Structure formats: structure tokens, C-alpha cells
Amino acid sequence: MPHSSTGTPSALILGPQGFYETLCRKLPGFFDAHDHKGDIITNIAHVTSPSENKRAVIGGFLDMERVDKICRDHDLIFQNR
Length: 81
Prior knowledge:
- The protein is mostly helical and 81 residues long.
- It has helices at 16-23, 52-59, 64-73.
């Protein structure tokens, strides 16, 4: 864990599993993550298998068209990780 002080901006790096573990639960008040077919993911192993689910989970929280455009504008490729 990096050392941070008051007033220092810090980033929280979240991949598909991080989004799932942080924001999705079977409890009220949390989000449901959907796989690439639209089914609710109930097992963390399904977040990354098949690989299409990575993008589906991240896309549940981010506008992936916008992310892809920003990446294209800067000659980058979003890696879904």
C-alpha cells in the first residue's frame, strides 16, 4: 500500500475483479454485475472467465464507448484489466 498524506490525490486501481469485490454483493444496497450475455454473475470466478465478462463487468460501471474513444484519441488500447 503506497504511503499517502492529506491533500495528496491517490488512485484506486480497480480491474473487473476489483469492481466486483468492491461494489457487488448479494446484500441490499449493492450492485448486480452482469456477464456478456446479460446474466447476473454470482461467482467471482465468472468475472474473468470467459474473458468477455471482464469488459461486461467494467461496462456496468463505466461508459465503455467513451473509454474506447479516449483511448483511441491517445493511441491507447483499453485492456479490460
